[in-house]
Specification:
Chain lengths: ~170, ~400, ~120
């Protein structure tokens, strides 16, 4: 067991556990905090895959912005402080059965896929080449169209959210 | 290398030799070496805060025409040590109903977020923690972890004032990250790499001379990110009774303040690294210890400027702060990026010094235009408060009932 | 390169351990005399009424949302900035178009009053 495998196992267990606790917590604020831990675990997994840029972007955008947005949204709905809702919905057995069947299907498919046993090549030490990534982003033969479409998508998100929030501001006061 | 040229690296290499001599495998030796190195750097940072607190108190005292601490030890040098000893023995009052994990994790996270910034900055040519390829973005990302600490503090205290204070503090910190990140793009563009070591080594003229507009925006945004005056609305005593740390006592409260003083120093040395040339100076390439000396001198000059800001400016209101951020700094930083990108590319084939001069001129033009626009957009008239007609009691009308018109 | 991230991880653990150790030392050294008045929630000296919730204004949400959009934009611009020195002029024009679209969004938010705080 190399050190990397030990780190991966520990981080994977912590991430899965926090993922389960996100849905299993009684208070919504605790769910938000477990979500932060899950995202941190994913960031560490990115770092073990030598994608340092994506690890940092995960921390910066997901934990630094999206988690805070989720917490603010929780507080905006004003039911965050000490409301405790029932943990299970009525008729919970049907979704549970469907989830188990889906999990069995995916696991079975992966197990019989022949490339599952193939070991991936170890990446060379300078595999992360940010300059090449940047050039590819604006290369016309590369990803420039998704790059510009991403900006239009961000603009759409901004305009939509402001429109909805402006309505709510008028409704509230 | 000899001991005098680079004492720190000499000691580190000697310690590594010791560890290798014990006979462990290379993996374990590296890991243990990392742990010891991290410990020394982090503990050194935390002990350095004691000196920073003394420096700040003396300087604020002098700005306010008084001496500052001068009883305990020569020039009051032992005053912060006495304060630290006192705060270690204060009772840690935990209010009822707090969420134990959030309440206790918050001061730890606040200090940890600042300490992690010390891991990637180059203090001299050879003395740095690591040289990761995304250095500057790492600094911004761990600032975000500090924001999570503030939310935990506010929510975990089971106190509505703490919660309101925490939300306002986080809104302020989040907003000022936008010009911070965007103006941090400028050194990355000029260097071609995000690593802080590369940014320092590529600063042939310092970047403050090449892009002063970006440096100014970065400086203002990092002062706002540290939550110091004049941006300290979130913890002002007269506004919201110490804000998100109102329920903390003893060393937990002390940790928030250690984090804040350390953050101010850290913001100074980040600015020095990114815009003022870091450890560069005459002779610092050959004698690495000189690099550390230059770094400290430059950082203390910027830290002096930060304390000067604190001692001279009144506090901003929250709407003034947000207006400054969204209506001035963010559009300005976006315009600065576009202009620098265009100008640098158009003159890419000319000589280095010519490009520097043209970039400097473009930045100064942007600053002048921005100042004119701001001056035009600022409200210069205020509604008069004292000139409305208000009913004032005087001996003539004291006994008049409204509507009756009868006297007495 | 993995060694770099290992150092960062170790430094993160150490920097969380040090303040925690300091606080534990303080917890050992300090007196512990809780009573119900000291442990009550602070409300400027008055008794607390009602559970601890806060009136959320929608400005917090809008402000954080605009921050999120600009954060993602800046993060998308970082790889372009790293590759900037090797890029031809049209690549710079593409990035300027990207920034202009989002500057337009900021102007829309300004005109709609989403950036006001009151």
């Amino acid at each position: 067991m190399s050190g990397l495998q030990i780190v991966f196992l520990i981080v994977a267990v912590v991430t899965l556990f926090s993922g389960v606790m996100v849905v299993a917590s009684r208070k919504m604020m605790h769910s938000a905090l477990w979500l932060i831990l899950t995202l941190l675990g994913v960031a560490i997994l990115f770092a073990t895959l030598q994608a340092g840029f994506f690890a940092i972007v995960q921390v910066l955008v997901y934990i630094g912005a999206i988690s805070i947005l989720i917490i603010f949204t929780l507080m905006l709905t004003r039911r965050v402080m000490d409301e405790e809702h029932p943990q299970v919905i009525k008729g919970w057995w049907l979704p549970a059965v469907m989830a188990v069947i889906l999990f069995g299907l995916i696991a079975g498919f992966l197990a019989t896929w022949k490339d599952f046993q193939v070991m991936l090549n170890e990446l060379p030490a300078d595999a992360e080449n940010l300059a090449a990534f940047g050039s590819a982003l604006v290369n016309p033969a590369g990803y420039v169209i998704p790059f510009e479409v991403a900006s239009v998508l961000l603009l759409a998100a901004l305009v939509g959210a402001i429109y909805i929030a402006a309505e709510r501001k008028e409704k509230v006061g | 290398m000899s001991f005098w040229r680079d004492p720190i690296i000499f000691i580190i290499e000697w310690a590594k030799g010791l560890l290798a001599g014990i006979g462990w495998g290379p993996g374990w030796a590296t890991t243990v070496g990392f742990v010891i190195g991290a410990f020394v750097l982090a503990a050194g940072a935390m002990f350095f805060v004691v000196f920073l607190i003394w420096y700040e108190r003396k300087l604020i005292g002098r700005l306010q025409d008084r001496f500052g601490p001068n009883r305990v030890g020569p020039w009051g040098l032992f005053q912060p040590i006495a304060d630290m000893l006192k705060i270690f023995t204060k009772e840690l009052i935990t209010p009822s109903g707090v969420d134990w994990i959030a309440y206790n994790l918050a001061p730890v996270l606040s200090v940890a977020a600042v300490l992690m910034m010390w891991a990637v900055t180059p203090f001299s040519k050879t003395f740095f923690g690591v040289n990761i390829s995304v250095g500057i973005l790492f600094l911004i990302a761990v600032g975000g972890l500090g924001e999570v600490g503030i939310i935990l503090a506010g929510w975990g205290s089971n106190n509505k004032y703490a919660l309101v204070g925490a939300l306002r503090a986080v809104a302020q910190l989040c907003s000022y990250e936008v010009p911070f990140v965007i103006s941090a793009l400028v050194p990355v563009m000029l260097t071609g790499s995000m690593s802080l070591v590369d940014i320092v080594e590529a600063q042939n003229p310092w970047y403050i001379l090449v892009a002063p507009a970006a440096a100014l925006i970065f400086f203002i945004a990092s002062v706002a990110e540290t939550g110091r005056a004049p941006f300290d609305l979130a913890e002002a005593e007269s506004e919201i009774v110490a804000g998100y740390n109102v329920e903390y006592s003893g060393l937990k409260f002390g940790m928030f303040f250690v984090g804040e003083f350390l953050h101010a120093f850290t913001a100074s040395f980040i600015f020095v690294t990114v815009f003022l040339g870091g450890w560069r100076g005459p002779g610092a390439d050959q004698i690495p210890v000189l690099g550390l000396v230059y770094f400290m001198i430059k950082t203390f000059i910027v830290y002096f400027a930060l304390i000067l800001f604190r001692g001279t400016n009144p506090r901003f209101r929250i709407d003034q702060m947000m207006d400054l951020n969204w209506k001035v700094l963010t559009p300005l930083s976006l315009v600065v990026i576009m202009v620098i990108a265009l100008v640098d590319r158009l003159f890419a084939s000319s000589a280095d010094w010519l490009r520097t001069v043209i970039l400097l001129a473009a930045n100064l033009v942007i600053l002048v235009v921005a100042e004119r626009l701001i001056r035009r957009g600022v409200k210069t008239t205020r509604p008069e408060v004292g000139s409305r007609q208000r009913p004032v009691a005087s001996p003539d009308n004291l006994f008049i009932q409204p509507g009756s018109g009868a006297k007495g | 390169m993995l060694n770099d991230w290992l150092y960062v991880g170790i430094f993160a653990l150490v920097s969380m351990f040090l303040p925690a150790a300091a606080i534990s030392i303080a917890a050992l050294l300090s007196p512990k005399k809780p009573n119900s008045v000291k442990n009550a929630t602070y409300e400027c000296g008055m008794e607390t009424v009602g559970p601890a919730w806060a009136q959320m204004k929608v400005q917090y949400y809008v402000c954080t949302l605009v921050f999120l959009v600009f954060d993602v934009e800046a993060v998308l611009l970082f790889p372009w900035a790293v590759a900037y020195k090797q890029l031809p002029l049209y690549a710079v024009a593409e990035a300027i178009l990207f920034i202009l679209i989002l500057l337009g969004g900021l102007l829309y938010a300004w005109r709609k009053g989403a950036l006001e705080w009151l």
